[in-house]
Amino acid sequence: MGGNGASDHNRNYSLDIYSGDRFKQVGTIGNNKVVTTNVKINTSIPMNSFESKMYYVTSPNNPNHIVAIAFYSGRTHKIVKSIDLEYDKSGNLIPYKVVKHKGKNKAIGTHVHKWPGNKEKGDVGRKSHDKNNSFEPTKSDMKFIKKALKYNQEQQK
Predict the structure, then answer these.
(1) For residues 105 and 97, is the Cβ–Cβ distance under 8 A?
(2) Of 121, 114, 132, 134, which is closest to residue 71 (Cα–Cα)?
(3) Per-residue pLDDT at 46
(4) The pLDDT of residue 129
(5) Cα(127)–Cα(142) distance, rounded to whole angstroms?
(6) Amino acid 14: pLDDT
């Protein structure tokens, strides 16, 4: 279970804390920052936020295209939830749905993850591809998703 202090072979840093050397602000949506990472291997979400309760996160290959939304605890500043925005080849949002794949249910499309923490160690993380930790976005989540889509559309002009 990755988290604060975790690293993998694809990354050359250990903490995904929002800081100028790893993340930079590329825009705003209301009072919320739109940030991107300088790591080109994969999109990374800050695990901690000392400035905001949420960030919109763009692809490192396209800082004008939001691919995730991250929510943080106001008390601990650690990530508690993220929304992964999935797009088709034409750039349209793929809605969440459950399909049969090799006889098992599989969730596809835009989805939500919860980020449980280890309170004793102070770590935050989630298991990658955990089938039990992919949820359909709620009505409240959809408000943020719509703002992200509007931002993406405005950046295309």
Answers:
(1) no
(2) 114
(3) 76
(4) 55
(5) 24
(6) 33
Torsion of CA 121, 12, 111, 123, to 10 degrees: 0
DSSP codes of every residue in the chain: ---TT---TT-S-S--B--TTTEEEEEEETTEEEEEES--SS----SB-SS-SEEEEEETTEEEEEEEEEEE-TTT-BEEEEEE--B-TTSPBPPPEEEEETTEEEEESSEEEE--EETTTTEE---TT-GGG-B---HHHHHHHHHHHHHHHHHH-
Residue 71 to residue 79: CA distance in whole angstroms = 6
Q: Which residue has the tokens 């309170």?
A: 119
Q: How far is CA 13 from the centre of its chain?
A: 18
* Amino acid 7: pLDDT: 37
- pLDDT under 50: residue ranges of the chain: 1-17, 120-122
- pLDDT score at 47: 73
- Rounded to two decimals, what is the model's pTM? 0.78
